[in-house]
Amino acid sequence: MIQLTRLNDDLFTLNACMIEQIQSLPDTTITLINGKKIVVKESELEVIQLTTAFYKQIGLAPFIEKAGDSDE
Predict the structure, then answer these.
(1) 58 vs 40: CA distance, rounded Å
(2) What confidence category does residue 63 fall into, taking pLDDT thresholds of 50, 70 and 90?
(3) What pTM, to 2 d.p., does this model score?
(4) Domain 2-65 top-level CATH class
């Protein structure tokens, strides 16, 4: 789970495993796997860093890094 901030300054916690896509449009827009979109104050890079840290915390990081390898 990662903590993010909506544009109205409300804090919320998001299950990072539900993230399908992150875009800067120019506001950071997160699209979830169910199609819901959430706009947050954090930058795209911050969301990626928080998500990566969460994956490491729960032991998913090696699988994510392996899936991202282009050499295979």
Answers:
(1) 23
(2) low
(3) 0.81
(4) mainly beta
